[in-house]
Amino acid sequence: MERRIQSGKRAGFTIMELMVSMAIVLVVISVAVPLYQKSIIRARESVLRQNLFSLRTVIDEYTYDKQKAPQQLEDLVREGYLRQMPLDPIVGNNTSWKTIMEDASASASQSEPGIFDVRSSSEKTSLEGTPYSEW
To answer: Does an H or E element contain 99, and which?
Structure first.
C-alpha cells in the first residue's frame, strides 16, 4: 500500500520537515505552560480571597449574634454559621488557618477574647508580591 509519486520516490515527510514541526510545537508548549501555571495560581488566589472574605464575615456575624467572638474556628461550624471550614487553596487543607485573637481590652466579652481575624498560614508570596499570610 505504498504511495509512489511519478518519479518513483515514496511520498512522506523529510527529517527536516519533522524537525521544524517539532521545534514549532516545543515553542508553543514553552509559551503555554507558564501561562497555564499562572492561571492556576490566579484561580487559587481568587478562591483564597473569597474564603477569607467569607470567614471574616461569618466571624463578625457570630460575634454580633453571640456578643462574644468565637474561641475556635470550629465554633463557626458547630453553631451552624458554616457547613464546613473553607479550604485554604494555597496550603491545600482547611485546618491550617492562622487565627488572630482580639485584644482582651477591646473584646466584647473582656473575660475571654476570641478570634478577631483569620489569614492563610502559607509562607508563599502572591503574584502581586505580598505574602499570603498578610492578606
So the answer is: strand 98-101
8 Å CB contact between 59 and 115: yes
Half-sphere exposure at residue 66, Cβ-oriented, CA atoms within 13 angstroms: 21
Give me the amino acid identity at 88: D
Return the closest-CA partner of residue 81 out of 56, 106, 103. Answer: 56
Give the list of residues 6+ apart from residue 100 with CB closer than 8 angstroms, or none: 115, 116, 117, 118, 119
Q: Give the tens place of pLDDT for each residue, 103-114.
A: 766 555 556 789
Q: Compute and round to an integer the Cα radius of gyration of the chain.
A: 28
- Bridge partners (DSSP) listed for residue 60: none
DSSP-H helix ranges across 4-135: 15-66, 74-78
pLDDT tens digit string along 10-52? 778 889 999 999 999 999 999 999 999 999 999 999 999 999 9
Strand 98-101, strand 115-119: pairing:
antiparallel
Say how many C-beta atoms besides its own lie within 10 A of residue 76's C-beta.
20
* Cell numbers placing 88: 485554604
